[in-house]
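In this section we walk through a basic example: taking a raw amino acid sequence and producing a predicted 3D structure, encoded as discrete structure tokens. The instruction is simple. Fold the sequence below.
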Amino acid sequence: MASAVEEMRPEPAPFNAVESELVTRALAQIGRVCPEDAKVLRGQIARLRDLLVLLWDIPSLRAPHVLGDEVRDESTLVDHMCSSDGLSGDLELPLKATLSRTFLLAKIQCFGGFVRAVNELSRRGHDLGTLGRSLRDEHAQSIYTQLAEELLLALLRKPDVELRIKRLAATQLITVWDDAQLEIDDFCPMLESSWHARNRIAADLGSLLGTTEYFRLVCEDCSPQFLDFFVREDVSEGEKQAFEEFLFGMTYEELGALRSAMRAQGLSAVTAEWAGQVLKRTIEHQCRLDEIDPMSLYRSYFRRQLAADFRIMAGAEGPRRTAEAYLMIYLLDQQLEQAGR
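The resulting token sequence is shown next.
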């Protein structure tokens, strides 16, 4: 028989209050026009809730336990995460961590389903007001949360990041995995602001100076602290290079190839289409009119992160971290200093 405490425990909710209200409105609108789509989306929500119930039943990652005569607790988990080179991926993480990451992916896909359904209704001529934009913003916020997790995990595998920084990054990840409903605005609003702004501008390239892109970030209310960090007097060469990558959504190597091609062809300004021909890939735009594309931003981050990892392994020129990683290390360092550690 369940205990009184278990019987009183509320059922975990897959969405916060703002998300729940938005999802309810969207289901009502979709259900009136396309009941089959609404049925599919309700199924996704049910599975999302089932995942959260599984997470709910797993003890906290901070709870001590014994396995094979070995005492495991938060401290030993932090030690383990800080000693990882990242090559084992999620196989090295505890079950609650991998389930939490799975829950977030499922939430991203659920909001993605709502965005597709509402976009189709808009295409058919149904006026949904700000509903579509609100759903795209929630979808993007969940993707930004996933990006923040990946960023913290990337810090753990960097050989040149101080151990005290890694330990704080690992502790932050444990906090996020212990509460699957935490989102990026709960633990790193400055990064959310920068990604939110970057997702709303398209890099024109032009002379590849980045001035236009920088001022567009300002106009999109990018966190002043984020921008100030990369234009301060003592900014390092690696930080400047990584910020350029962030502005243009390209790697250091790609920007070098474009500048070489500009000189060879005697060009003073270029377009995204020209850049795509030189680099032999499509140059994605984070924003098209009123519709943002957070997946494009996600791919941009991973392209830059993979390039940074390669430079460390190969001893090649260029930034050893993404712009976001440089900023995150600074923020974690400030946090430790304020705590006197």
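Looking at the output, two observations stand out. The first helix runs from residue 4 to 8. The chain is about 65% helix and 5% strand. In the next section we compare this with other chains.
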